[in-house]
Amino acid sequence: MAAGTDHLAGLYGDAAAGALALAAHACRAGHVSAPVWDLNFVSALGRGPDRFVLEVCRHSHAARVAVSGPSGIGKSLLLQTISGLVRADRGYVRLSGETLQDTAQDIWRPPQQRRVGYMFQNYALFPHLTVAQNVAFGTRQGWLNPRRGELDRQVTTWLDRLELSRVAGLYPHQISGGQAQRTALARTLMASPRALLLDEPFAALDPSLRLALGAELLSVLDELSLPILLVTHDPAEAERLMDEVWALGT
Ligand SMILES: Nc1ncnc2c1ncn2[C@@H]1O[C@H](COP(=O)(O)OP(=O)(O)OP(=O)(O)O)[C@@H](O)[C@H]1O
């Protein structure tokens, strides 16, 4: 991988060992204003010959970015590194001018301080909590906190906005795929994130629903005008929904 080039690459085995030794090299943003996404890092999973390494050098002013690439190439690892669930081995992660991690300056902001909303592939709803309780869990305090009145108001607002009021008292197994998706989104938005990371938000849905829900999700996100990184396996979906597509390769 040439120094300074723009790239996103998932590497295995020997290539991964080489990447770890070299990175993170010079990688400069060419704009005066701070990019929305300013990423130059190396993240790794596992050890020894099975080690998987992701090398990223990408600056972008696009608010809505789709991340595409084959299964196992490191798309989720990219999101995990931005959210802070995984700590990059080297390099930095900056979002709209704010440094979330920089190994050279010894800066590390833990996930709960990043205000980066992460919506998981399978929505990860709690099966024993109702829709409303799942949404309330999006705040750090959770639904049992003492400032219950304010929390209830926020929950009601999001349930209304995402058309979930009618199913607020139901459990995840009693709601549709689209409602589950919106519940997960409402829970993520409860934490007032400054950016959203959506990992295959349509993967669990029937193909015939994907188109409609993609449009629906985007109309909600349009109102919020948050930067979004959306992982998808579907190139048409990536082109249709987002401003820019980042293709992860080897
Ligand atoms: N603990 C681990 N040790 C070593 N390798 C791991 C570990 N966990 C995950 N991996 C590997 O890291 C790579 C990246 O995983 P990741 O989940 O980011 O891929 P992905 O592109 O999101 O895949 P998919 O599209 O299938 O969800 C995969 O090849 C996976 O096998």
UniProtKB/TrEMBL annotation:
| InterPro entries for the chain | AAA+_ATPase (IPR003593), ABC_transporter-like_ATP-bd (IPR003439), Molybdenum_import_ModC (IPR050334), P-loop_NTPase (IPR027417)
Origin organism lineage: Bacteria, Thermotogati, Deinococcota, Deinococci, Deinococcales
Q: Transmembrane residues, as ranges?
A: none
Question: Which part of the chain is the ABC transporter domain?
Answer: 36-250
Q: Which Gene3D superfamilies match?
A: P-loop containing nucleotide triphosphate hydrolases
Keywords, sorted A to Z: ATP-binding, Nucleotide-binding
Q: What is this protein called?
A: ATP-binding cassette domain-containing protein
Molecular function terms, GO-annotated: ATP binding; ATP hydrolysis activity
